[in-house]
Every structure is written in structure tokens, then in C-alpha cells.
Amino acid sequence: DTAVSQTPKYLVTQMGNDKSIKCEQNLGHDTMYWYKQDSKKFLKIMFSYNNKELIINETVPNRFSPKSPDKAHLNLHINSLELGDSAVYFCASSEGGGYTFGSGTRLTVV
Amino acid sequence: GQSLEQPSEVTAVEGAIVQINCTYQTSGFYGLSWYQQHDGGAPTFLSYNALDGLEETGRFSSFLSRSDSYGYLLLQELQMKDSASYFCAVRNDYKLSFGAGTTVTVRA
Fold this sequence. Notes:
The structure holds two protein chains of two kinds. Chain A is mostly beta strands. Chain A has strands at residues 4-7, 10-13, 19-25, 31-37, 43-50, 53-57, 64-70, 73-78, 87-95, 98-101, 105-109. Chain B is mainly beta. In chain B, strands 2, 4, 5, 9, 10 and 11 form a six-stranded mixed β-sheet that branches. A five-stranded antiparallel β-sheet of chain B has the order 1-3-8-7-6, with no helix packed on it. In chain B, 0% of the residues lie in helices and 60% in strands. Chain B contains no helices and eleven strands. In chain B, a hairpin with a 2-residue loop joins strand 9 and strand 10. Classes of the chains: A mainly beta, B mainly beta. The A-B interface holds A 31, 33, 40-45, 48, 50, 55-56, 58, 90, 94, 96-104 and B 30-31, 33, 35, 37, 41-45, 48, 50, 85, 87, 89, 91, 93-98, 100-101.
């Protein structure tokens, strides 16, 4: 059973399109996150949600809109995609010190 | 904000011991974590130190000194499968902030 699952694994799309990435965790954790990993492997926090409530928005453009319908799901919708949005996006969840990451979504904007 | 420094690359032979140091500057520090990431994979949790001292988990150990804002990850009896990127990360309120990662290459 996958603990944190995100779909799709790969996403190739044209500039200007809108796309969504879905994330679900079955660990019973209260807190979920979205991270962006760039081509230099730097992992940067985008959003933190605790019990469906937005806690942290780390200066992410408002083209990115997270939605948490319940504490097991955190989806990410991206409007008007730009070339610079190309990256790997990781969903994660945590309870205490250890974070569990999903397998990532490689987004390529062409 | 937070800043973390760790070496960018380390190369060692199978069976060797490698130590990856991490220094950090942050506010609201809860603890220091270490994650391993293989190419194309997800970061996976290795260890978490909230208090000063050494934590040992099999071949991997992690150390924290809060007063020095310093920690390290010790990889012992290196195996080829340990070739990966290793990230230190500080835990604050509702987020983990990562260092730039250390690429460990294990040679036969």
C-alpha cells in the first residue's frame, strides 16, 4: 500500500495551459505539503496544510492554487503554465519529525 | 529565513566511512533531519535529531549540536547502493527547509 501517492507521474504540457496534480496519503497524518525540486535538485517548500487549513504559502505565484478537500488529500492546480514551472513536484505528509514523500510528478512545460 | 550549508559532493570507496556535515541558521528550530534521494526517486527519511547527541540506525548515524547549529550524517560500511544525494533539513513550524544536498558517489 502506497503511503503518499500522487498522480500523474509525468506531465508534459504547453505554455499557457492549466493542469492539476493530485495527492493522497493513507498514513492518517494531519499535515501535508507541496515541494518543488528544480533542476539543481534544490527542494523548496511551496505550501503547508494542517487539517485542511492553509498554514504556509511560501511566496508562490497565485497561479498555483492548492486545495485540500479533506486531511488525506492535497491537490495542486496550476494556471497559465510557464516554462519556469518545469520541475519535479513532490507531495509529502508528516506527523512529528519524519516526512513521507510521494514519488513525484515531473512537469515539463514546452 | 533559514540557510543550510553542506558539501556538494563526496566520493568514497566501498566499505569506507563518510561524514556529511551540515551547518544551519534558522529561527524556531525544532530539529535536524536527513533524507536520502536516489536519481529519479523521492526523498526518503533517514533520521531526525531533536536533541543534542548521536542517533544510530544500522549503518547510518546522525549527530546534532544545537549550541553549534551543526549536525552530521555518518555513513558506515559504504555500499554501492548508498550512491545518492543526501539532504539535511531543519524543521520549523509546519515546514522542513532543505540544504542543497550532497551527492555521494561510491566507487568499487
